[in-house]
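Duplicate of earlier report; Polysaccharide export protein input re-posted below.
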Amino acid sequence: MLVWSKFGRTKSRLLLDGTRRSLVVGIAASLLAGCASAPSAPPSATASPESPPEYVLGTGDRIRLTVFNEPSLSGEFEVDASGAISIPLVGSLKAAGVTQRQLEQEISTKLSAGYMRDPRVNVEILKYRPFYIIGEVSKPGEYPFRNGMNIISAVAVAGGFNYRANDQTVLIRRAGQTQEYSYPVATTTMVYPGDIVRVAERLF
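Output:
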């Protein structure tokens, strides 16, 4: 009887351990399924104002080009609808999709090819292309971008949330992306030129 009693207790413990393992596995699977159900922001989705990603030029940006000791080549230029700028001696040059430093290097290379020896080139952004905010805000529309803008200041520019708004998360489609991602309404969620911010309606 003692042997059977010990066997019974051992069997009960094994069954209990098996039930606990199944429960843990089930909870983990549910959590994973919940995470996969909504698109989360990519790794570069949020950034502190102190460490913004390097800016990429796009249509609507206006730059000041300075070629040192060559005032006739310097001036202000806007990236047109085709993503290009037209510069004396250089001609039409693709600007959309590159950084300031990359554009400087490209212009310098072009000027070095038979025009100038060791040109010194500087590109400065004078005006950024706008961002857009739609959905449940008081004044949806197009707005000028300002350096250091985060989602809270962007919503404030658009008159704030309306009474239907989900004020915990927003959906943002970054310039050049085809999908929008969910971001928290926090000062660490930055807004960049060309972004489309959508404020959804709250569920309850």
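The first strand starts at residue 62 and ends at 67.

Merging into the original ticket.
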